[in-house]
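Researcher: I'm preparing a figure for a lab meeting and need a structural model of a single chain. I don't have an experimental structure, so a prediction will have to do for now. The sequence is pasted below. Please return the structure as tokens so I can convert it later.
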Amino acid sequence: MAQPCIPAPPNTKPVNLALQGGGSHGAFTWGVLDRLLEDGRLGLQAMSATSAGSMNAVAMAYGITKGGYEGGRAKLEEFWSEIAKIGQFYSPVQTLPWEKWLTGFGIYPDYHPAFFAFDALTHAFSPYQLNPLNFNPLRDVLEKVVDFEHLSRCPVTTRLFLSATNVRTGKIKVFENPELTADVVLATACLPYIFQAVEVDGEHYWDGGFMGNPAIYPLIYHGASRDVVIVHVNPIERPKLPVTAPEIYDRINEISFNSSLMREMRAIAFVARLVEEGSVDAKRYNRMLIHSIRDDAEMIMLSVSTKLNPDWEFLMHLKSVGRRAAEDWLTHHFDKVGNTSSIDVAATFL
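Model: Understood. Here is the structure written out token by token.
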């Protein structure tokens, strides 16, 4: 028997969301989405996402079809609760007692012995050697939280664009609603040092963050709304020069996973300038309205090792940070939705 689908609330401002990936740091995005759904004034027309962003997207979209915006919030909490449960057994990085004491004072250590041991191991041996049976506990979580058949068939589901990287061609692959399965979501989050490439329809995929974190162009071509709200997980700028090995590693990771987004935003800024100058037909080229929700001041304090930290207290902390960032954006920029960008795209990305 088909499950009923609940449409999004009427009389909302339509927007598209772009959700970055970032492992456990995706709990920041959870907090952002939780606050936006609680506010209820935005209509979510489409979402482009990768990695942890994809998991947030499918959990929320499915929850909305089952119970409206409150259903979306409930499914997000269920998903992250399950992540914390399995993380107790499978994550190589756990919050140590001394780390909890330091984080209570807002101090985030950039060195975790278990992470660097794990990192060295995964660079010496491939996941095909370390995990020959290709076990991935995230599959069980996704299949428990999300009914993918319902999600892919429900006619009022928010339109989803989930990005993965084709290992053979090096090109981006964007999966849409009718194609969505647990394998597709795992493909968008497949870090090649940790997991075997995920096969979907005869092709193999790695994390979508290599080619689109997240991809914006599907929202330009297929999203009905001109407004795109980007939820950032990876800091764009760092004021301090990285000089230690962990700091350098972190910054390389951030630059790599921001690079595709930076390129797309530069193209958007270029087209916007051409429209303003009258060099192109404004009727043919829509000017995108770009918005950004982020908290670089908080996220720069977190090392890359914490992206593998599923500790519930840590996840709840990031959720609260995300809620605070969303609240700040709603307070200062909600009125700009549908009218103008709330960030200076050129200054931010060029």
